[in-house]
Amino acid sequence: MKMHFCIPVSQQRLDRLGGRYVLYSVYLDGYLFCRVRYSQLHRWNEQLRRVFGNCLPPFPPKYYLAMTASMANERRDQLEQYLQNVTVDPNMLRSDVFVDFLKLVQLDTFSITTKTASLDIFLPDGRNIQVEILTSDTAERVLEVVSHKIGLCQELLGYFGLFLIQCCKEGKFSVMKKLVDFELPYVSLQSAKVEDCKVGLRKWYMDPSLDSVLMDSAAAVALIYMQAVQDMEKEWAKPTQVQRQKLEALQKEDNQTKFLELSQEVRHYGFLQLDPCTCDYPEPGCRAVLSVGNNEISCCITLPGNQTQEIIFQMNRVKCWQVTFLAFLLSSCLKKMISEKMVKLAAENPEMKDSCFLPRNKIEIIKVDCVFGTIMEEDL
């Protein structure tokens, strides 16, 4: 699936000889990723083409005469589409020529040299693990270092991820974004420019039943148990009073396995809760809290009279969605749910491996705009 690359702005600069060039600000999942010139991307495309041949998406052509404003905007749009389309191929994402270039431009953009550094990785229970890394280490590499330190086997790394997390007042926190494999956590943390921002380790799957895959690993169980306890405390998961009493008793006994088994029955267990926004349904200006997981999007809407109403979008009815500006974390969760569903269906029926699991007769288009707080559903 495409990654959320965008190039919202570009700037004209002067080189050492007084010539003009354009510097493109590339954003990934709503945060500045790097600044690059067309010539850098052009050389990178040539390197990729030597490895992968003609399977690459089209790259915008060179202009040998001065560009007009419309030509400059067209090139910016074309470069944005190129970056989105080139990330579709998983083999390309894992290649050295792909990763090495993106590592270099991240370091150059924020004037960070490759050196040894200490990085604190925060766990869901509030503790942190300090690891020694290189500033040029990718999120994939840092996750390997962390897993070795806590005794998590390599085979289970795909169920966990590194996230940028903002710790707010009164114990609240916000998951800002999931770091993709080729991002540099040290650089992303330095460049985020958000107060109380940390790199956190969390499980990265939206289907709670996948807990069962991890139950034979003590390190994995400890991690998902910590996150389950945190989710209950933060009220992301919503147990009944009876469930809460049983969970508290199991927590006192430190019976992590039974705690996780009972958690499977808790409403919104394993969901990721997004920051509050506003929506235009059932009327403009209503406050909404979105929780995503287990193949659904739950919208808890506060009405003008302070009553609450819950609206649920089932993912098996969602065909596509449109994301504008900063709703990237929601879109990442939707993509994760779709990929998990496709893997499960492919395992059950190999003939469905290349087919779409979404039904054709009932489709919902979800439009999300975090700036204006718009969440809309259209039945086709």
Write a brief caption for the model.
By secondary structure, the chain is α+β, with helices and mostly antiparallel strands. Helices cover 34% and strands 28% of the residues. The chain is built from eleven helices and 16 strands.
How many beta-strand elements? 16
Average the pLDDT over all residues and give the rounded result: 87
Return residue spans where pLDDT drops below 50 for at least 5 consecutive residues.
355-380
User: How does the major sheet shape up?
Assistant: 5 strands, mixed
How far the N terminus sits from the C terminus, by CA atoms, comes to 24 Å
Helix content: 25-40%
Shape: globular
Radius of gyration: 22 Å
Strand order of the largest sheet: 5-4-8-6-7
- Class inferred from helices and paired strands: alpha+beta
Q: List the helices and strands in order.
A: EEEHHHHEEHEEHEHHHHEEEEEEHEE
Oligomer: single chain
Give the amount of beta strand, in percent: 25-35%
Number of helices: 11
